[in-house]
Write a structure and sequence with these properties.
GO molecular function, one term: hydrolase activity, acting on ester bonds
Protein name: GDSL esterase/lipase At1g09390
Low-confidence stretches: 1-31
Mean pLDDT: 90
Order of helices and strands: HHEHHEHHEHHHEHHEHEEHE
Number of strands: 8
Family: Belongs to the 'GDSL' lipolytic enzyme family.
Largest sheet: 6 strands, mixed
Shape: globular
Keywords: Glycoprotein, Hydrolase, Signal
Strand order of the largest sheet: 2-1-3-4-5-8
Distance between the termini: 36 Å
Length: 375
Amino acid sequence: MASPLSLSLLCHHPIFFFCYSLLFSTLLLASFPHAVASQCKNQPIIFNFGDSNSDTGGLASGLGFPINLPNGRSFFRRPTGRLSDGRLLIDFLCQSLNASYLSPYLDSLGGSKFTNGANFAVVGSSTLPKYVPFSLNIQVMQFLHFKARSLELVNAGSRNLINEEGFRNALYIIDIGQNDIADSFDKNLSYVQVTKRIPSIITEIKNAVKTLYNQGGRKFWIHNTGPLGCLPQKLWLVQKKDLDPHGCLSSYNSAALLFNEVLRRLCQELRSELADSTIVYVDIYAIKYDLIANSSKYGFSSPLMACCGSGGPPYNYNIRVTCGQPGYQVCNEGSRFLNWDGIHYTEAANSIIASRVLSTAYSSPRTTFDFFCRS
């Protein structure tokens, strides 16, 4: 999403928060029967392409951009480059396989040998322009370099690196497009102008899938985009608000839904076109909108208000004083907020989103997440 501003250190009482974190993490693990029931027979290998919704440290590693506390306070107890108080959806998906979290491709000092894949996602990424770092096209180019170099080292006798079979059996996740739509609205384009850009965005996703397929990839997991109009940042920025019954921007959500429909049709088309492929389309929009519309049912309060920001209700967001900037306000650790910083979700929300994804109820075709490593 939009690049974060510098974040400052949040003081807290370590013993109390450590106890709370331990309890909360235990409860989250208890809600993940899929982690125990994973049927993987082969080592799960995942390559992820996307934006800040799944960036596990790419921006911090690649550009040295500081992402400080309070990011990471709830689980890791330190900033890790994730724009959240804790784990992201991609972290919970890896956890469901009893696999390690994905390391950023750009992390040269993380100690990872990338034996379980790599994360190419970077904050702020979009599909267009295609040759601007770190667009989807650039991320795929990075993957091609990573694969070529890995196989070169394997052929030279290196061990514990991903071989040709590993790349062939890996899962390729794509979670991108939100910035393309959001940035178009930010440029004051009309709804019609924004929606006219959708076919070009979809073409880039199509090209990425085909390139990965031509490299031997056969298993794809593609997320649609969430309800942009429910993000506190957008609600604060837009002066003339066309709100739906739940307080979200109707035009932004309508554009997201149109994008999702075209993406769904693309997945159908690619299933027919790409022999022996499995392409799973996941309705992230429906999961997130349900969380917002029925927030009290899930135990959340103020679904359109950021936990970390400034300005207080209704959105606690101000572009001049974002999360971590001097003057920011942050909710108490343990507060039940859906939104973390005006754009990204809290760990508590991400854990529920992950459980819905793992349920298969929002996947087309209905497929368990561990399908790629079962045989």
